[in-house]
Amino acid sequence: MPTQDDDDRHWLKQGSTSSAEVEKTYDEWAGKYDHDLADWDYRAPAQAAEMLRAAVAPTAAILDVGCGTGLTGAALRAAGFTGPVDGVDLSQASLDMAAKRKLYRDLTQVDLQTLPLAIDDDCYDALICIGVMTYVSNSVEVLQEFTRMVRPKGRIIVTQRDDLFQERAFGDTIKAMADDGVIAPDFTISAPQPYLPDNPDFGSEIRVIYIEMTVT
Q: Number of helices and strands (H, E) in the chain?
C-alpha cells in the first residue's frame, strides 16, 4: 500500500512550478529533508561547491539561491569558503532549519516567481543555485536576475535535471545569454551526473547537469 513517503518521493520526480505547492511541500518536508537526501546519496551541493571553489576566492561573498535547510551552505564551508554566505528560499520552515546551522550571514524568504528580488545589483562575487530550477517556469527571467545580483566577472553555478534541460531548452537559453553579452562565451555545461542515485524514482534515469557562467 502506498505511503505518504511514497507520495512525497513521486512528487519530487514530477515537480511543480506552483509556488504555493512547492512552499507547502518543502515546509512539511523540512524536518526530514536532510535525512532523506542523505539516504538518496545527494551529491550536488558538495560537487557544486568544489566547482565554485576552483573558480573564486575563498573570501567571496556568495548568494545561495534555494538554500533550503542549508546543505549547500554546509558544502560551501566544507569546501573552504570563509566569506559571507547569504541564503534565500521559498520555504520558511527550511530557512528555520538552515538558521540552526549558523553558517549564513542572512536568510530571507523569497519567491523566484516574483521578480525582481529585493537585492541590490552587483552584491555578490558568486551565486550558487542547486536543485531549484525544476520549480521555476521562466528560466530566462530567473537567470537574468541571477546575473543582475552578481558583480562583473563573478561566477554563477546552476543545476538542472537532464530531462528538464532538454524539455525546457535550457542550453539554448544559456547560449542566448552569451550571445547577448550577459555572460561570457566560455560558459560550461557538464555531462549528466548522478543526482539522487539511491532514490528509486531517480536512480540512473534522472541525472543532473551543472552549468557554470561568468557574468560580463
A: 8, 7
Q: Which amino acid type is present at position 189?
A: I
Residue with cell 542572512: 106
Query: Which three cell numbers mark 200?
Result: 528509486
Do strands 208-214 and 188-189 pair parallel, antiparallel, or not at all (unpaired)? antiparallel
- Could you tell me which residues are beta bridge partners of residue 161? 208
Q: What is the pLDDT of residue 15?
A: 79
> For the chain, which residues score pLDDT lower than 50?
1-4
- Tens of pLDDT along 72-98? 999 999 999 999 999 999 999 999 999
Contact 76, 64 (CB under 8 A): yes
Longest dimension (CA), the chain: 54
At residue 173, φ and ψ (nearest 5 deg) are -65, -45
201: nearest Cα among 141, 165, 161: 161
Q: In what order do the strands lie in the sheet with 188-189?
A: 106-109, 85-89, 62-65, 124-129, 150-161, 208-214, 188-189
Q: How far apart are CA 14 and CA 11, in angstroms?
A: 5
